[in-house]
UniProtKB/TrEMBL annotation, chain A:
<keyword id="KW-0812">Transmembrane</keyword>
<feature type="transmembrane region" description="Helical">
    <location>
        <begin position="132"/>
        <end position="149"/>
    </location>
</feature>
<keyword id="KW-1133">Transmembrane helix</keyword>
<dbReference type="InterPro" id="IPR008699">
    <property type="entry name" value="NDUFB8"/>
</dbReference>
<protein>
    <submittedName>
        <fullName>NADH dehydrogenase [ubiquinone] 1 beta subcomplex subunit 8, mitochondrial-like</fullName>
    </submittedName>
</protein>
<dbReference type="Pfam" id="PF05821">
    <property type="entry name" value="NDUF_B8"/>
</dbReference>
<keyword id="KW-0472">Membrane</keyword>
From TrEMBL, chain B:
<protein>
    <recommendedName>
        <fullName>NADH dehydrogenase [ubiquinone] 1 beta subcomplex subunit 4</fullName>
    </recommendedName>
</protein>
<keyword id="KW-0679">Respiratory chain</keyword>
<keyword id="KW-0249">Electron transport</keyword>
<keyword id="KW-0812">Transmembrane</keyword>
<dbReference type="Pfam" id="PF07225">
    <property type="entry name" value="NDUF_B4"/>
</dbReference>
<keyword id="KW-0999">Mitochondrion inner membrane</keyword>
<keyword id="KW-0496">Mitochondrion</keyword>
<keyword id="KW-0472">Membrane</keyword>
<comment type="similarity">
    <text>Belongs to the complex I NDUFB4 subunit family.</text>
</comment>
Protein backbone atom coordinates (compact mmCIF):
# COMPACT_ATOMS: atom_id res chain seq x y z
CA UNK A 1 0.00 0.00 0.00
CA UNK A 2 2.71 2.41 0.97
CA UNK A 3 4.68 1.14 -2.01
CA UNK A 4 1.79 1.99 -4.38
CA UNK A 5 1.40 5.46 -2.90
CA UNK A 6 5.14 5.93 -3.09
CA UNK A 7 5.16 4.98 -6.78
CA UNK A 8 2.35 7.47 -7.49
CA UNK A 9 4.23 10.25 -5.76
CA UNK A 10 7.44 9.29 -7.51
CA UNK A 11 5.66 9.24 -10.87
CA UNK A 12 4.22 12.74 -10.32
CA UNK A 13 7.63 13.97 -9.27
CA UNK A 14 9.32 12.47 -12.32
CA UNK A 15 6.59 13.83 -14.63
CA UNK A 16 7.01 17.27 -13.07
CA UNK A 17 10.70 17.12 -13.80
CA UNK A 18 10.58 15.49 -17.25
CA UNK A 19 7.39 15.40 -19.30
CA UNK A 20 8.73 12.57 -21.50
CA UNK A 21 9.15 10.13 -18.63
CA UNK A 22 5.91 8.32 -19.37
CA UNK A 23 7.56 4.92 -19.60
CA UNK A 24 7.08 4.24 -15.91
CA UNK A 25 4.66 1.37 -15.73
CA UNK A 26 4.14 1.19 -19.52
CA UNK A 27 5.20 -1.79 -21.63
CA UNK A 28 7.23 -1.14 -24.74
CA UNK A 29 5.97 -2.60 -28.00
CA UNK A 30 9.00 -4.29 -29.51
CA UNK A 31 7.57 -5.15 -32.91
CA UNK A 32 9.88 -6.15 -35.73
CA UNK A 33 8.64 -5.68 -39.27
CA UNK A 34 9.40 -8.36 -41.83
CA UNK A 35 10.34 -5.73 -44.39
CA UNK A 36 13.24 -4.64 -42.17
CA UNK A 37 14.57 -8.08 -41.33
CA UNK A 38 13.91 -10.14 -44.45
CA UNK A 39 16.89 -11.23 -46.56
CA UNK A 40 17.89 -8.82 -49.29
CA UNK A 41 18.39 -9.65 -52.96
CA UNK A 42 21.14 -12.02 -54.04
CA UNK A 43 24.50 -10.23 -53.68
CA UNK A 44 26.37 -9.85 -56.95
CA UNK A 45 29.31 -7.53 -56.24
CA UNK A 46 32.02 -8.18 -53.61
CA UNK A 47 30.89 -5.09 -51.70
CA UNK A 48 27.36 -6.46 -51.47
CA UNK A 49 28.73 -9.78 -50.26
CA UNK A 50 30.84 -8.10 -47.59
CA UNK A 51 27.86 -6.06 -46.44
CA UNK A 52 25.66 -9.15 -46.30
CA UNK A 53 28.32 -11.06 -44.33
CA UNK A 54 28.51 -8.21 -41.83
CA UNK A 55 24.71 -8.12 -41.61
CA UNK A 56 24.49 -11.79 -40.68
CA UNK A 57 27.46 -11.72 -38.30
CA UNK A 58 29.78 -13.85 -40.42
CA UNK A 59 33.31 -13.26 -41.66
CA UNK A 60 33.45 -12.71 -45.46
CA UNK A 61 35.16 -16.07 -46.02
CA UNK A 62 32.33 -17.92 -44.25
CA UNK A 63 29.56 -16.14 -46.13
CA UNK A 64 28.17 -18.30 -48.96
CA UNK A 65 24.68 -17.43 -50.26
CA UNK A 66 22.37 -20.01 -51.76
CA UNK A 67 22.56 -20.07 -55.57
CA UNK A 68 20.07 -17.78 -57.27
CA UNK A 69 18.19 -20.39 -59.32
CA UNK A 70 14.62 -19.38 -58.56
CA UNK A 71 14.42 -21.53 -55.43
CA UNK A 72 16.96 -19.50 -53.45
CA UNK A 73 16.67 -17.42 -50.32
CA UNK A 74 18.10 -14.09 -51.48
CA UNK A 75 21.22 -13.24 -49.53
CA UNK A 76 20.54 -15.58 -46.61
CA UNK A 77 23.77 -17.45 -45.86
CA UNK A 78 24.30 -21.15 -46.48
CA UNK A 79 25.49 -22.31 -43.09
CA UNK A 80 26.79 -25.79 -42.27
CA UNK A 81 23.85 -27.75 -40.88
CA UNK A 82 24.63 -28.72 -37.29
CA UNK A 83 21.75 -30.22 -35.37
CA UNK A 84 21.20 -29.86 -31.66
CA UNK A 85 22.51 -33.30 -30.84
CA UNK A 86 25.81 -32.64 -32.55
CA UNK A 87 26.56 -29.42 -30.67
CA UNK A 88 28.97 -29.46 -27.76
CA UNK A 89 27.05 -30.23 -24.56
CA UNK A 90 29.74 -28.68 -22.35
CA UNK A 91 30.13 -25.30 -24.06
CA UNK A 92 28.60 -22.31 -22.24
CA UNK A 93 25.80 -21.58 -24.68
CA UNK A 94 23.78 -18.43 -24.12
CA UNK A 95 20.61 -20.49 -24.46
CA UNK A 96 21.67 -23.91 -23.14
CA UNK A 97 18.34 -25.60 -23.87
CA UNK A 98 18.52 -24.70 -27.55
CA UNK A 99 22.34 -24.98 -27.68
CA UNK A 100 22.40 -21.62 -29.34
CA UNK A 101 24.20 -18.32 -28.84
CA UNK A 102 22.71 -14.84 -28.87
CA UNK A 103 22.67 -13.35 -32.35
CA UNK A 104 23.78 -16.58 -34.02
CA UNK A 105 22.46 -16.85 -37.61
CA UNK A 106 20.07 -19.78 -37.93
CA UNK A 107 20.21 -22.37 -40.69
CA UNK A 108 17.32 -22.32 -43.16
CA UNK A 109 16.06 -25.66 -41.77
CA UNK A 110 17.00 -24.96 -38.15
CA UNK A 111 13.46 -25.63 -36.92
CA UNK A 112 14.03 -29.22 -38.06
CA UNK A 113 17.52 -29.47 -36.55
CA UNK A 114 16.50 -29.08 -32.90
CA UNK A 115 17.61 -31.57 -30.32
CA UNK A 116 14.11 -33.07 -30.18
CA UNK A 117 13.93 -33.47 -33.96
CA UNK A 118 16.10 -34.62 -36.82
CA UNK A 119 19.82 -35.20 -36.31
CA UNK A 120 21.33 -34.39 -39.69
CA UNK A 121 24.88 -35.10 -38.47
CA UNK A 122 24.21 -38.66 -37.37
CA UNK A 123 26.07 -41.21 -39.43
CA UNK A 124 23.67 -44.13 -39.98
CA UNK A 125 24.92 -47.66 -39.47
CA UNK A 126 23.89 -48.62 -42.99
CA UNK A 127 23.86 -46.11 -45.80
CA UNK A 128 20.60 -45.23 -47.52
CA UNK A 129 21.69 -47.08 -50.64
CA UNK A 130 22.36 -50.25 -48.65
CA UNK A 131 18.99 -49.97 -46.95
CA UNK A 132 17.22 -49.57 -50.28
CA UNK A 133 19.05 -52.51 -51.88
CA UNK A 134 18.32 -54.79 -48.93
CA UNK A 135 14.66 -53.81 -48.96
CA UNK A 136 14.32 -54.38 -52.70
CA UNK A 137 16.20 -57.66 -52.48
CA UNK A 138 14.03 -59.10 -49.73
CA UNK A 139 10.80 -57.95 -51.37
CA UNK A 140 11.88 -59.34 -54.74
CA UNK A 141 12.66 -62.75 -53.29
CA UNK A 142 9.39 -62.94 -51.37
CA UNK A 143 7.33 -61.68 -54.32
CA UNK A 144 8.93 -64.13 -56.74
CA UNK A 145 8.29 -67.04 -54.37
CA UNK A 146 4.66 -65.95 -54.10
CA UNK A 147 4.19 -65.56 -57.84
CA UNK A 148 5.89 -68.88 -58.69
CA UNK A 149 3.73 -70.73 -56.22
CA UNK A 150 0.47 -69.29 -57.59
CA UNK A 151 0.26 -72.07 -60.22
CA UNK A 152 0.67 -74.75 -57.59
CA UNK A 153 -1.75 -73.34 -55.04
CA UNK A 154 -4.28 -75.56 -53.35
CA UNK A 155 -7.97 -74.77 -53.18
CA UNK A 156 -10.66 -76.62 -51.34
CA UNK A 157 -11.97 -79.36 -53.67
CA UNK A 158 -15.64 -78.29 -53.80
CA UNK A 159 -18.17 -78.32 -56.56
CA UNK A 160 -20.66 -75.45 -57.12
CA UNK A 161 -23.53 -75.47 -54.68
CA UNK A 162 -26.56 -77.41 -55.89
CA UNK A 163 -29.43 -75.04 -55.17
CA UNK A 164 -32.97 -76.22 -55.89
CA UNK A 165 -34.95 -74.35 -58.47
CA UNK A 166 -37.74 -74.78 -61.01
CA UNK A 167 -36.62 -77.11 -63.78
CA UNK A 168 -33.24 -77.81 -62.19
CA UNK A 169 -32.51 -81.46 -61.53
CA UNK A 170 -29.20 -82.22 -59.82
CA UNK A 171 -29.68 -85.90 -59.13
CA UNK A 172 -32.35 -88.59 -59.27
CA UNK A 173 -32.97 -91.42 -56.86
CA UNK A 174 -32.80 -94.45 -59.10
CA UNK A 175 -32.07 -97.88 -57.69
CA UNK A 176 -28.66 -99.16 -58.51
CA UNK A 177 -28.88 -101.91 -61.13
CA UNK B 1 42.67 -18.72 -30.06
CA UNK B 2 44.39 -20.59 -32.84
CA UNK B 3 47.85 -19.65 -31.62
CA UNK B 4 49.14 -23.00 -30.51
CA UNK B 5 48.03 -24.98 -33.56
CA UNK B 6 50.98 -26.03 -35.68
CA UNK B 7 49.06 -27.73 -38.50
CA UNK B 8 46.69 -24.85 -39.30
CA UNK B 9 47.62 -22.34 -41.97
CA UNK B 10 47.87 -18.65 -41.28
CA UNK B 11 44.55 -17.96 -43.02
CA UNK B 12 42.76 -20.58 -40.94
CA UNK B 13 44.15 -19.16 -37.70
CA UNK B 14 43.18 -15.64 -38.73
CA UNK B 15 39.66 -16.77 -39.63
CA UNK B 16 39.30 -18.51 -36.27
CA UNK B 17 40.46 -15.36 -34.48
CA UNK B 18 38.00 -13.19 -36.39
CA UNK B 19 35.12 -15.53 -35.70
CA UNK B 20 36.05 -15.52 -32.02
CA UNK B 21 36.08 -11.72 -32.02
CA UNK B 22 32.55 -11.55 -33.48
CA UNK B 23 31.36 -14.18 -31.04
CA UNK B 24 32.91 -12.35 -28.10
CA UNK B 25 31.17 -9.12 -29.09
CA UNK B 26 27.79 -10.90 -29.24
CA UNK B 27 28.48 -12.63 -25.94
CA UNK B 28 29.35 -9.33 -24.29
CA UNK B 29 26.15 -7.77 -25.63
CA UNK B 30 24.12 -10.73 -24.35
CA UNK B 31 25.61 -10.58 -20.85
CA UNK B 32 25.06 -6.83 -20.78
CA UNK B 33 21.39 -7.22 -21.66
CA UNK B 34 20.94 -10.16 -19.31
CA UNK B 35 22.29 -8.29 -16.30
CA UNK B 36 20.72 -4.92 -17.11
CA UNK B 37 18.62 -3.98 -14.06
CA UNK B 38 16.45 -1.51 -15.99
CA UNK B 39 15.18 -4.12 -18.45
CA UNK B 40 12.90 -5.46 -15.76
CA UNK B 41 11.20 -2.08 -15.35
CA UNK B 42 10.70 -1.36 -19.04
CA UNK B 43 8.10 -4.14 -19.32
CA UNK B 44 9.59 -5.41 -22.55
CA UNK B 45 8.09 -8.88 -22.22
CA UNK B 46 10.74 -11.02 -20.63
CA UNK B 47 12.59 -12.18 -23.72
CA UNK B 48 15.49 -10.57 -25.49
CA UNK B 49 15.16 -9.62 -29.14
CA UNK B 50 17.47 -11.93 -31.09
CA UNK B 51 18.38 -10.69 -34.56
CA UNK B 52 19.35 -14.19 -35.74
CA UNK B 53 15.94 -15.60 -34.86
CA UNK B 54 14.15 -12.57 -36.32
CA UNK B 55 16.02 -12.81 -39.60
CA UNK B 56 15.19 -16.50 -39.82
CA UNK B 57 11.49 -15.88 -39.19
CA UNK B 58 11.35 -13.02 -41.69
CA UNK B 59 13.14 -15.16 -44.26
CA UNK B 60 10.57 -17.91 -43.82
CA UNK B 61 7.72 -15.42 -44.14
CA UNK B 62 9.06 -13.78 -47.31
CA UNK B 63 10.39 -16.79 -49.23
CA UNK B 64 8.09 -16.06 -52.18
CA UNK B 65 9.89 -12.79 -52.84
CA UNK B 66 12.90 -14.72 -54.12
CA UNK B 67 10.93 -17.25 -56.17
CA UNK B 68 11.37 -17.23 -59.91
CA UNK B 69 9.76 -19.73 -62.28
CA UNK B 70 12.48 -21.72 -64.03
CA UNK B 71 12.52 -24.72 -66.36
CA UNK B 72 13.98 -27.05 -63.76
CA UNK B 73 11.49 -25.93 -61.13
CA UNK B 74 8.65 -26.35 -63.57
CA UNK B 75 9.74 -29.87 -64.46
CA UNK B 76 9.99 -30.78 -60.78
CA UNK B 77 6.50 -29.43 -60.10
CA UNK B 78 5.01 -31.19 -63.10
CA UNK B 79 6.61 -34.54 -62.34
CA UNK B 80 6.11 -34.57 -58.58
CA UNK B 81 2.79 -32.77 -58.17
CA UNK B 82 0.73 -32.23 -61.29
CA UNK B 83 1.32 -35.44 -63.22
CA UNK B 84 0.87 -37.79 -60.24
CA UNK B 85 -2.42 -36.20 -59.23
CA UNK B 86 -3.91 -35.92 -62.69
CA UNK B 87 -2.44 -39.19 -63.94
CA UNK B 88 -3.62 -41.15 -60.92
CA UNK B 89 -7.07 -39.65 -61.18
CA UNK B 90 -7.31 -40.37 -64.90
CA UNK B 91 -6.16 -43.97 -64.72
CA UNK B 92 -8.32 -44.72 -61.69
CA UNK B 93 -11.36 -43.23 -63.38
CA UNK B 94 -10.64 -45.19 -66.58
CA UNK B 95 -10.33 -48.49 -64.72
CA UNK B 96 -13.53 -47.99 -62.76
CA UNK B 97 -15.47 -46.81 -65.82
CA UNK B 98 -14.44 -49.90 -67.80
CA UNK B 99 -15.43 -52.16 -64.93
CA UNK B 100 -18.78 -50.39 -64.59
CA UNK B 101 -19.50 -50.71 -68.33
CA UNK B 102 -18.60 -54.39 -68.23
CA UNK B 103 -20.95 -54.90 -65.30
CA UNK B 104 -23.77 -53.12 -67.08
CA UNK B 105 -23.29 -55.24 -70.21
CA UNK B 106 -23.22 -58.38 -68.07
CA UNK B 107 -19.74 -59.46 -69.13
CA UNK B 108 -18.49 -60.36 -65.65
CA UNK B 109 -19.30 -63.89 -64.57
CA UNK B 110 -20.45 -64.62 -61.09
CA UNK B 111 -17.38 -66.70 -60.44
CA UNK B 112 -15.16 -63.71 -61.31
CA UNK B 113 -16.84 -61.31 -58.94
CA UNK B 114 -14.88 -59.01 -56.66
CA UNK B 115 -14.48 -59.90 -53.02
CA UNK B 116 -15.19 -63.55 -53.71
CA UNK B 117 -13.53 -64.79 -50.57
CA UNK B 118 -15.19 -62.50 -48.04
Amino acid sequence: MAYVIGIGVLRKLVLKVNKNALLLGCSRNVAAWNKDWKPGPYPKTPEERAAAAKKYGLIPEDYVPYPDDGDGYGDYPKLPPISGEARDPYYAWDFPVLKKNYGEPLHVISDMLGEDRYNINAKPRFSTATQLMVFLGVMTVLASLFLLAENFSYVHPVMPKQYPGPGVKHYTFEPAE
Amino acid sequence: MGDGQVDASFEEKRAVAERAKLRAALKKEYIKQLTDPHRHASGEGGYLFDSGVQRFMSMRATMYDHFRPTLKGGIMWFSFVLFPIIGYGYFLNKKRREFDEKCRRGEIAYKDRLFKFI
